[in-house]
Every structure is written in structure tokens, then in C-alpha cells.
Amino acid sequence: MSAIIREPAIDERQMIAEAEAALAGIGTVREAVGEVIFGQESVVERTLVAILSGGHALLVGVPGLAKTKLVETLGVVLGLDGRRIQFTPDLMPSDIIGSEVMEQDATGRRSFRFIPGPIFAQLLMADEINRASPRTQSALLQSMQEYHVTVAGQRHDLPAPFHVLATQNPLEQEGTYPLPEAQLDRFLMQIDVLYPEMEAERRILLETTGIGEAKARNVLSAERLKQIQLLVRRMPVPESVVEAILALVRSARPGQGGKEAERHISWGPGPRAGQSLMLCARARALYDGRLAPSVDDVRALAEPVLQHRMALTFAARAEGVSVRDVIAQLVKAAG
Hints:
Blueprint: H1 12-34, H2 41-52, E1 57-60, H3 67-77, E2 82-86, H4 93-97, E3 98-104, E4 110-116, E5 123-127, H5 134-146, E6 148-151, E7 154-157, E8 163-168, H6 181-184, E9 189-192, H7 198-207, H8 222-234, H9 239-251, H10 259-264, E10 265-267, H11 271-287, H12 295-306, E11 311-312, H13 314-318, H14 323-334
Parallel strand pairs: 1-8, 1-9, 2-5, 5-8
Antiparallel strand pairs: 3-4, 6-7, 10-11
Helix pairs in contact: 2-11, 9-11, 9-12, 11-12, 12-14
């Protein structure tokens, strides 16, 4: 086993102690989220993996599946300063990042003062992100990559940690502006929110239509979350996992994969996809109580990490092949 890390290696006992402490904190977070969000274990896991990896996630699902409630709950449980922006066609970039206003003091001297927008939060919910214009989307997505905004030539750093959880409705496309591929690539994962199972939906009916309703409780602090995120980046990665990530990502590109990839894939994921898989595999391992990721983590995360970083050919769409089908074939071929 070889450790692929740039940070100075830490003592094995220290690593185990830190991982056990982190695992206890993550377990408490899972329990607290489960008190409010019923079912959707896969969605909760993937969303927490994205946050533990220090990245952003795009939640895609029809209305009424508790996407907004999940983000609000995570903000409270993780002790993050959370805010919400409802994206609409008339939303302007200044409505998100803020703007400068002119003020005049008692002596008559005028000066500009920057008023921060709602983007200056630790957990930002971008609700129905594809309803805003491309200009407004770009203002947010640039901040996601660079972690600062520039107004009137002045740089303003965003708080740390900074995470964006955006939602998107896959059904209503009229009056929307689909995110360009280059902007989608900035999301660590695309998480599909599906309908709940029967028992979970039964519990939803019984526990959310009465007088009382479960409220989220805080169990972690922002500083503690940053420590866990640092631990994720310091986890050792076996050489087999590195090779599996490289093989999977490269096989999803035309000209580098097999015949099926050549026939079905128009363009594939870049190096950022491999980086995302590496971070998410580490975070998923810690989430499951393991000190190092395995190839199984790579297989499990292939779909949410790759599906928004690929495009199908016309022939594939004509045959009714979906991106998920192609990724499943690639994972199966990789063994």
C-alpha cells in the first residue's frame, strides 16, 4: 500500500485516534439528520460525503422530496451559517455577491461601502439554480471555484468552510437556463433524489402532519468540520484505488475507452473528475468507519461523480441509452 499524499505523514496511532473521533462525530451527525429526514439514506450519505470532501453538490429531483429541508437540516446539524437563494429569471449577480453603496458622513465626505450578499455564508442553498440567467449562474459558480468575489476591483474572501448545495428540477425545462458543462464540472457530485421507499413514506405521513414535528439539532461545529475535512485529505490511498480511478475516468473518454465508449460517449470527464473521485472515496471510507478507501468506494461513487461530466452521442440517445447505463457498463468493464 502506498500513501498518495502531499501533506506530512502523521503517526499511525494519531491517525487512528483522529479517525475514531471523527467517526464518532459523523455518527452523531447521521443520527441527528435521521431524526428529521426519513429514508433517503443514499442521498444523505452522498451529500455528507460531498461536504466532508470540502466540495459542492447538485441535488436533482422532482418537487416535494425534501431537498430544501435536507439542506436546512444539514446547516443546523453541522453548525454552519446557512442561507438560501431562490433563483429566478430576474435575479442579478449583485443580488448574490453583494454591491457597493455610497455613504456620506457628518462632514459631508462620501465613500463607498461594500454590503455583502447572501453568498457570504458557510452553507448556501441555491434553490432551482437553472432558473437564473447564465450571467447570474456564472457569478455563483465562479465563487464556488475561487472562494472569493471581486467587487469594484476589491477582493472579498468567502467564509470557510464554504459549500453550495444547489437544487434543480429535472421536469420543468420551460423558462430555465441549463447549466453549461464547464459550470456543472465545478460540482463535486450530482446527487439524484428519488422517491422514498414505502416505509419511509409511511413515516413521513405519520410524523409530519401532526401538531408537533421533529426539529434539527446542532451536534457539530464549523471548526470541527474543517478538522474532519483536513483529516480526509490526509488519509492514505492504496495504489490499487489510484489505478482504479485513473482507469475508470480515462475509459469514459472517447478515444481512450473501448468500442462501447467510442460509440456512446461524445465527450468525457477531465482530470477534475479524478480529483473528485479521490476525495469522495476518502470521505466515504471515513463515513463508513474505515481508515483508507477501497476500489468498492470508487465503484459506488462513479455515477454521482461522473454523470454530469459526460455527454452522449446522438446514436446513444437514439438507442435510448442513458448516462447511467454507460457508467454502469464502464464500472462493470473495469471489474
